[in-house]
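This part of the workshop introduces the protein records we will be handling. A learned vocabulary of local backbone shapes supplies the integers on the structure line. Getting from the letters to the tokens is the skill we practise here. As an example, a complete record with its sequence and its structure tokens follows.
=====
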Amino acid sequence: MPEVQILVKAEGEKSLIALIRENTLLEYHEQEQSSESLVGSLFLGRVERVLPAVKAAFVKLGLRQNGFLPIREQDGFHHLMGDAPLVTGNDVLVQVKKDPKGDKGAFLTRDVALPGQYVLLMPNNRHVGISKRIEDESDRTQARNLGIRIAGGRFGVIVRHAALFAAESEVRQEAEALYAEWKSLADAAPYRKAPELLKRSESILSRLCKDYCARYDLAVFADADLSETVGEKASFQKLDSEAFDLLWRKARVAEQVKDALRRKVQLPGGGNLIIDQREALHTVDVNSASNVEAGESLPLSQNLAAVPEIARQIRLRNLSGIVLVDFIDMDTEAEREEVLNAMEEAVRDDAVKTVIHGFTKLGILEMTRKRTSDTLLEALATPCNRCNQTGHILPD
């Protein structure tokens, strides 16, 4: 049986996409054609207004709200592209880093990054970096040298972990294809009329296949024909409705999604997590509850047992921004360090950039996770008007 499965279920005008590993739901998405994320999309925008006081400009994209573009990018971008000021009325080629949300427009950048399976290509700077997933020093050296050889000073590149398992010719071919695609877009942009969408971001299924097929034996199952390919390294099988429904039920997708929308999560052994989502940050409270096993290291053992589920819930619920975890109080710095290391290991498989910042003076673990789209609760539930939208009405 494949290590990782992606189940794609057709339901009306949308697709339900579940990423499963050992019958555990790691990611869940509902994708509609009209509500796809714009993160990664390229626009030819028009500068509407420059605000030097906030060091940003508002850019017309043809969407309901103008995008927000910082004046200052990474130093590597300005070293290559110069420091020419943004001018009202000028056209600018930008990429969406964060989707519009509420009254906020899309967050934009001019420092474009084009993702591939093996590399992240950055045509507007010359930085060569490596994925944080690459930990072994010899592997890091190998990956960095590979990036230098492939880039050749023509573009910037981040070498992904998957590149270590591919032939250099495959990695080079992908980078060249991405660079050629960028050149075609950039060369044509002066002849297009802003605002215009030049390139839409890749679909959720395509992103998941790229993220996992190089690291795992990946199989995609669907109950209908797919409008896109899953790549050469992932297998695909279309099942009849009866066989697919059996697979969906066996993985307990619906039950695990409902659990991920609840505030309380039960842990093996009797403990639980209380997860609260807020506008500015999210909190996770670890409780021993009915777990009263004897032993001097009980808080440590309970915290360590909770770590994998905390990491899974953050990923499954797609929590982003600031996340604070209130573990059961521990007595020593050595115990806190052990929990810290365990959390760093647990989030390593998350494709979304997650940074563990350490414990505060109050013993709260601080972490940040890059925002890519709405949380699972925001995507599936409806804000409750009776309580001034402080709560949500969950789906049936």
